[in-house]
Specification:
This protein has 276 residues and is of the alpha+beta class. The protein is built from 10 helices and 10 strands. A hairpin with a 3-residue loop joins strand 6 and strand 7. Helix 7 packs across helix 8. Bound molecules: zinc ion. The site of zinc ion has 7 residues, from loops.
Amino acid sequence: MPEGPEIRRAADQVEKALKGRAVLDLFFAFERLQEYEEILQGDVVEKVDTKGKAMLIRFQRGYTIYSHNQLYGKWMIRNAYNYPDTNRQLRLALHNEKKSALLYSSSDIEVLRTEEAEEHPFIQKTGPDLLSEPVTAEDLFERFISRRFRNRKWTSLLLDQSFIAGIGNYLRSEILFKAGISPSARPSDCSEEQLRKAAGASIDLTWQSYRHQGITNDLELAGQLKKQGVKRRNYRHWVFSRAGQPCRIDGTEIEKIQAASRRLYYCPTCQKHPER
Ligand SMILES: [Zn+2]
C-alpha cells in the first residue's frame, strides 16, 4: 500500500490538473453519488488535501470529495477526455477544459459537506498528517509521551493511522533506525533524546521521501551510490529491505523480523533495547 509521501505526490498531480478551474463535467460510477454530478458541475476546485492515505478534493461551494485508494485505487491525469487504455474500472472522473482527473478501481469514495468532513469516521480517527497539516516535532513529542500512546509498542504505533497519518511500513523501519530505537521498545522505554529524534525523524523522513521520490537514506550517500551504478533498491533506504547487508553506520548485519504482521528491518547495534 502506498504511504503518505506517495499519496501526497498523487494529490499534487490531481491538484495541478484541477486547482483554480471549474469542473465542467463529472462522472460517478456509484449510483448513490450520481446526484452530485449536477451539484458539483461548474464548481471550482480550491485545493486537494490529504489525510494519511485519503485524498480530499475541496470545492469552492463547500463540498469535499473524499476518496481512499485502499490497495488498488489509482489516479490518472490525462488531457481532457483522453481515456487511457486500461482494464480498470473507472469510478470517478472530473473534467475541466484542459484536463481529466480519473480515479480507477477505488470503491471508497464519498461526497461530504466540507464543514462535516472532519466528522467523517475515517478522518475523525486519523492522526495528524505531516504533509498537509502544520505539525511540529514538539507536537509529536507530546503525542509520544501521552497516556494514550506511551505504553504501546512502537512497531504497532507507527502503522496505526490514528497515531500519525501516512506512515507505513518502510517509514516505520527508517524512523526507528534514525532514532536508535529497538523494535521491541515502547515510547515509555525511551530516553528523551530518542523521543526527540523519533519526532524529528518522523517529520524529516516523511518530507524527504515526498520530495525525493521515496528516498529515506542520506541524500548525499544515496547520490554517491547511484553514481557508482548501485541499483535504486540498494541505495534508497537506511535499513528497509536490506536484510543481511551491513549497517551504513557500523557495519552490523541488518536483521529482518515480523512486527505487527509486517516485515521490519533494524540494526541490532544501533537499535539496542534500553536497559530496564
Ligand atoms: Zn548500525
